[in-house]
Amino acid sequence: MMKKLMTKMNEKYFGYVRNERGAQALEWVALGLVVIAIMSVIAMGIQGSSIGETIISKLEEMIQGIGS
Q1: Which residues contact 53 (CB under 8 A, 6 or more apart)?
Q2: What is the gyration radius of the CA atoms in the chain, in angstroms?
Q3: Measured distance between the N- and C-terminal CA atoms of the chain, rounded to whole angstroms
């Protein structure tokens, strides 16, 4: 009886672990938050933040690299 109970509990637990429905949506939300954070740092970088200026200069380098 104990083995049957443990088997049933394991099936239920691993059923939740294997269920990946919605995981991709969470990844997109996290990616969106990262983009928003970078955009806000860039917006503040115009006012003299060194982090914002660094991100702006790196993005400019990447864009110029694409055109070359």
Answers
A1: 45
A2: 23
A3: 71
